[in-house]
Amino acid sequence: PPDDMARRTQACTFCHGEQGRAGPDGYYPRLAGKPAGYLYNQLLNFRQGRRHYGLMTRMVDPLSDRYLMEIAEYFAGLELPYPPPAAQASPPPPSLLARGRELALHGDPARRLPACVQCHGSRLTGAQPDVPGLLGLPPDYLIAQLGGWRTGQRRAHEPDCMATVVRRLSDADAQAVVAWLVTQPAPPDARPALERPAPSTDAPDLRCGTAPSPGAGR
Question: Is 60 exceeded by the pLDDT of residue 9?
């Protein structure tokens, strides 16, 4: 068989789905098409203890920074269509969706909450080089990540802007944002925006850290 990245990343796709399209159980997110910088940062976060999942940590621990970036660049280069939003047995009430839409598109200046589009792109498909998209993700995964940031189980490089945002977000508003996001179809061209948006004027104190560029070794 050919020794290429498609074959080398089969261990990834066993959980994250064929070609990294997302796992079937709601907890393994899509990898295909995410910004390479974001994917690389998350691999580092698992290896360095900012994210916690034993299987991921064991898989990435022996790999060099440069090879982790190769993996990230491989999945980032897969431009695959997103499936339509999954049908929900109990659709959320319109009032909840309206609140989620307001927070996602406009934020809540009174509580210093920036809109999701402020960082994740005007189409919520992410932004280069390291901001992920929010569409096409299952509700269980989104809720788990928000909870992880709130409890400290998930962290990013300091200053950790997402941790700050989530602590300002009430449980009801977190539910509303997730409920609205999972009903939104991804656009036909779901590639991340080419540039990260300007800092939010609604929450000027927010700053986001990034990982260093990969070196030759660990």
Answer: yes
